[in-house]
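Hi,

I'm pasting everything inline rather than attaching a file, because the server keeps stripping attachments. The sequence lines come first, and each chain or strand is labelled.
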Amino acid sequence: MLTTNQDRVNALLIPIFSILLGFIFGAVLMLFFGYNPILAYQAMLMGVFNSPYFMGEALRQATVLTFAGLGFAIAFKAGFFNIGVAGQLLAGWVAAIWVALSLPDLPRVLLLTLSIGAAVIAGAIWAGIAGALRAYFGTSEVIVTIMLNYTALHLTNYIIRNVLATGNTTERVGENASLRVEWLAQLTQNSRVNMGLFMAIIVVILYWVFMTQMTAGFEVRAVGLNPDASTYAGMSAKRNIILSMLISGGLAGMGGAIHGLGTFGNIFTQSGLPSVGFNGIAVALLGLGNPIGIFFSSILFGVLDVGAGFMPNRAGVPDEMADIVIAAIIFFVGANYIIRLLLNKIKLNKTVEEGGE
Amino acid sequence: MVQTEIVIEMKGITKKFGEFKANDNISLNVKKGEIHALLGENGAGKSTLMNILSGLLEPTSGEIYVNGKKENIDSPDKANQLRIGMVHQHFMLVDKFTVAENIMLGKEKHRYGFMDEKGAEKDVKELSERYGLTVDPSARIEDISVGMQQRAEILKTLFRGADILIFDEPTGVLTPQEINELMDIMKKLTDEGKSIILITHKLDEIKKVADRCTVIRRGKSIDTVDVKSTSQQQLADMMVGRSVTFKVEKEPAQPKEPVLEIKNLTVKESRGLDAVKGIDLQVKAGEILGIAGVDGNGQSELIQAITGLTKVESGTIKLNGKDVTGKKPREITETGLGHIPEDRHRHGLVLPMKLEENLSLQQYYKKPFSKNGFLNHKEIKKHAKKLIEEFDVRTQSGESTAASLSGGNQQKAIIAREIHRNPAMLIAAQPTRGLDVGAIEYIHKRLIEQRDNGKAVLLMSYELDEVMNVSDRIAVMYDGKIIAIVNANETTENELGLLMAGVPLEKAKQELTGEDRKERETVAND
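And the predicted assembly:
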């Protein structure tokens, strides 16, 4: 029988193994193609950690990833696979910019509240559609959210070209709609890390409070783990599915607002869905649904993402190879089932040996 | 050393799950062409032993010889190669596939990469004729009766070349007539040189077909006896480990006002057919009403309708004088219902959650367990601690997951959660399924205690003994209707058996002549 302590150790071992395996796999691949993996990884890590600017950029990336990750995680806890985080994030992004551009003269606090609020609502609606369809008609949320991703993409591009701008890029939002924090930017040599970082930390705490301290979170968890027993205990599976999807989309939308108001200050037509939405899934899986785990996974992914940029110049590893290494890590994160199996096997062998002695 | 006629020899098998020894130095040998019964109570370790033999579990220690050769059966595939086949209690069949498709599943016949369905059907037909297992190979599983499905399951093991067949509690879901047919099939199989291990806790079945019987109690093998020269009473005593009184101690019931009133209730099952067909039923305060019947005659649907888990088609359900027809589960629970569900893993517990969370599953939204939407973990823990002590739930702590508990303790946790709320109406569906003697007695005592405290209790069970021993009145369900309601102390096992098979009460009474009764009484007095 596993004690809870051992469970906790396991919970840490699995993501660490995933990351290690990803790095090893990436190294093997680089060796195979004649690149020096040690040089490459060195370039990646030193590139980020030797420069306050790039550390800031990694954190900036981590901020948005945290929102995407938390968004995916809450739906996942309720038994829902929200592939649509990317689309919901995009919906939030465009909504935030739209509000910021439409009401340019409002005071900063009010404008930020309105912009971010609009983004949350836009994301929530986009996810809520899938939630409601699932709850009332039993449609597969995976297919619906994938399709909603594309509608979000093309709708956003349409809005940009026809409503918000005449070309492919909108104007920049005003100072009063920017999430830039002066001292933070100064500290990181003018990187784009912004107020969103603090919002992410607050949301991580709120998420934890919701899931572990509130009856509503208890219901979401129970429904996700066993909808039949939850119904038996008088919970409404439908209500909880929709609720968790609304929160999920809302969080993704908020991530979009931070992308818009913090990172870019505008929105431009996209050729594809923002990858940060999909990486949010990986981050949530790597963090095993734990908000603090998600936060740290996001930082790791931020470092990887930003650091990968150094691999071509400093180690001669082409861009594509850097992407493959990241993909390998994501793959092993997604395959944590295999790692769990491996860990169990190692343990099992140990106990058998002990028993034999 | 090993006689050639012994096909299976298991020596000193021990299987530990953590500290718990499910099998403790068990030995078993099976001769060629015999039906060897494995008798033991629920949870005695029969299934564990057979799972070891069929390669699903590996023993902690012990040796297995098949046809005199020592073998290491580490996978179901290996068991297959050794010609050991298992007829599972819960059939491993694909509903949407035909009988033939199911039988060849995993061993598909093919020609140039294409499935050879005609050839497979022919093979199946040949097999079924040889062993008298009549079944239509082209019928879909979902369209045939449970008895037929079982035949498909048997054919599946034969198709894979099994010479040693393990039947895991094969009669639980069958009607008495189907049971007789199965017994004939088993005899025919042994005539053809197959050997059979029959897992059961039903004495009459052993008397009817088995040649020898190995008794297992609490993980240990007690003895292997010749069935012909051993009486049912002796077998029962060996199984339980003491002189068995089949009666549960209890005072006569003192029924008062009705707590649950069901009028003309109709409920559909998942496929849209009527499962409950116009039932009238009353359960009074201070009595235990048992519901007897073969699995699948509408009992589950009846209970799910009362508890709000299934839609009511027509009719009314009144609880505590309040109409609760079609109400949500929580409202019905609040009206005064406790429900020990039939499937404790599906409905009773959220297995990956902590035990303490599970113990508050019906009350977490109320004070003192939560306030203003925030959980009070302190109260939840305190409450769990109290219940764990009071109901003797064996667990490392309240923080362990419900999944880490043994079946008996999981059930105790559910019973604790449902009984301590002191509901006016307690519904217990299959409350002792898969539990050991100690737990069964405990649960029965608790049910009777509720009754004596003036609560109404509805007990649904497929175990005839349980219904007869615990209930005050017994309603027998057959084909979605209540075919008769009898007093527990006035009825007999034979009478209930006939009622369960759909024979009306009058006719059942006629059929059971005085002679039968005398015979039964002498057996009981033995």
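Residues 348-421 of chain B form one domain.

If the labels don't parse on your end, tell me and I'll reformat.
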